[in-house]
What we know:
This protein has helices at about 15-25, 50-60, 85-105, 120-130, 135-145, 175-205, 205-215, 220-225, 235-280, 280-285, 290-300, 320-330, 345-385, and strands spanning about 40-45, 65-70. The protein is mainly α. Helix 6 (about 175-205) packs across helix 7 (about 205-215).
Amino acid sequence: MPCLTYSLKSGGITGEILVRILKEFDTRDLFLRVNGKMPMIVIDGHQSRVDPAFSAYINNPVHLWKVCLGVPYATSLWKVGNASEQNGAAKTEWYREKAIFVSYKSTHHLPCKIDACDCIPLVNKIFHKCYGNIASNKKATADRGWYPANRALVEHPSLARDDEPARTSNSLNMDEGLGAATLDRLIDHRNRSEGGRKAAEKRKATNEGISKNILDTKRLTAGVITGNGVHSLNDPRFLVPYKEREKMRKEKVDKSAKTKRDKCTKDRVGVHKMRSRWGHENTHLFEKCTKEECGAYLQYKKNQGKGERADGAMPKELPDRRARCVEYMSRPSPAGSPYQSDTEDIEENTMESASALLALASQELSVREDGINSLAEDLEVFDGDGHHGDEDGERDVYGDGHNV
């Protein structure tokens, strides 16, 4: 099996990368699925593990994968490469190789500094010495409970709970006064919190309660899943509310997209009506447009950026709106929507723009024709009996001293 290498600019991992890894395994038929057996992987609690694409792939009947959550919290404790022995060896080897490299540069009269391009070759020299050590890797694997599966992290000091009861003073008056009142309030609060905790535990014990907790949580994480007693991403108690959450999320995204599409359509319709009434804005510069028509145009050309790129508030007075419209004319029109229903009027708008350009071109052509006709009349005058020119019929038509 060749090494699979993936990289992101963020340096992390995504559900898409996980899917590509499992696809590669399935393409090579590394694991047989016979007699109801399936391959199993144990993962940590990184957020990419609850990615929709990853969940859909591992639960596809064509290529089922049994996926279980190992350590939902403190995933750094689970990393074999984070062993203190390996990190210590890496630092030692790094300093040694760096000293050798700088000494080599000094001997050959090179600048005694380490450039960015020197880092990777140095890492290649030390990596296998520290992280490729079989003995230290076995020890790190056992310390983290990977193999043997000894649940070693359950007893890790950073995850241990401090259940030591608080010390009480025997000199406190618990029968009357402030001490007694405080004690009564503490007992009442304790009873209430214990009752709430027991009720919550009881709800978690039922499938309905587990599904509701996963469905209602604001942010779904591995901690929330395991906190409700679910340790597999194939568990129906997780899959049912998870699919419902995804359905609700897609509906929310679709609703937001529809709202934006409706607004864009409304703006385009407003601009189309303005152009149908007064022609393209290049021909009239909004001199006859109403306040509402200018408002529709400003919304159509509005910059959707944030921060400094965002446009200010729309002017309230008509002259100010007209001036702002003229200012926005140089902006590009909004791109067409990928939805066909939203771009039905694009051809009409394009035809309006083309008509306006043709009108401008025809006006310019008319001006040119007038100039040519005037020039022809002048030539006729020169050709007349007045004999403006020399004997060969050459005339200084342009008045620049050159006869034609």
